[in-house]
Amino acid sequence: MQLDAKRIPSSVKPRCVHCSFVVRLASTLAVTMGVVTLTSCDSVAPTATDNSASPNSTAPSTDTVTSPPPPAGETTSGNTTSPPPPPVVDGSSDSAMLAGKGIRTLSQTLAAVLPVGDLQAVLSGGMMLPQCPSLGIGTGSSSIPLTMDYGAGCRPSAFGSTTMVGTAEGTAYTAASAFDFAFVGLSVDEELLTGTIAGSFTRADASTEFAVSIDIKTADGTVTRGSSRATFDQAAGTMTLADTNLVVSAPADDPATVSTSNAVVDTKAAESFSPVEGSATVETTISSSGLTQQVSVTFGN
């Protein structure tokens, strides 16, 4: 996964410093795993007096970063030292993880309500009721109470080995092909989802297009809110997220605004709700500094 990060102060553009660097993540990002490349063009805002060129200047007493050993081929001897390491871009990897988390939550939420796209075909007798989930269809002309019940756990045919548990309860509005649902104890692959989704759908022969807004909280306290236009391709088993704008908030992190127009989730071959193709732009305002950080995330190899 490739990330290009730029940090922009809210009021003053700080002096650019050399800060191209590579960080190998010690943990797995929500979107992929491996080497993350971060390119930053901004440091923290400069102080009134710049002593960086003074040989007697000292490092600040706070917010210091311990320098790693010099790279191979560079040594430290006498008064000659290797260049200092670039400043740490606070929150870049956190922003990437939040982006992946938010997109994954959106994909799981859409997957849980996918059967609503078949409701009209079921009502007209053109399609049999699915075995997973069990559909509870109420009575009504323009608005129909609808429950999608995954019970103690079942695997929808559209999502391979994915196991869903719990229910989605709400209303389908047949005239407008619209719906709204609240999740009750619903989990996707052991990820508990609590909250709501509302929107509309267009059903074609081999695909269903959704325009939705979501407000979903996961068990770790991360909240994903926003909107998306997504297309699920039944034959390919892929979900393409277009015109997607999310705000993802985690308890210990600054909220991240995530935008993507081409992220592809492969639920069939990859059996995952994390993107395997496309890119996203993530913007975070760091509360401790007031700087706005922009990160470009590329999914896949």
Report on this model:
- The chain has helices at residues 92-113, 119-123, and strands spanning 2-9, 20-24, 35-39, 134-137, 143-149, 164-173, 178-188, 191-203, 207-218, 223-233, 238-249, 256-260, 263-266, 275-277, 279-285, 291-298.
- The chain is mostly beta strands and 301 residues long.
- The protein has a domain at 94-298.
- The strands form 2 sheets. Strands 1, 4, 5, 6, 7, 8, 9, 10, 11, 12, 13, 14, 15 and 16 form a 14-stranded antiparallel beta sheet that branches. A two-stranded antiparallel ribbon has the order 2-3.
- 31% of the residues are buried.
- The model is unreliable at 1-91 (pLDDT under 50).
Spell out the blueprint of helices and strands.
Layout: E1 2-9, E2 20-24, E3 35-39, H1 92-113, H2 119-123, E4 134-137, E5 143-149, E6 164-173, E7 178-188, E8 191-203, E9 207-218, E10 223-233, E11 238-249, E12 256-260, E13 263-266, E14 275-277, E15 279-285, E16 291-298
Antiparallel strand pairs: 1-16, 2-3, 4-5, 5-6, 6-7, 7-8, 8-9, 9-10, 10-11, 11-12, 11-13, 12-15, 13-14, 15-16
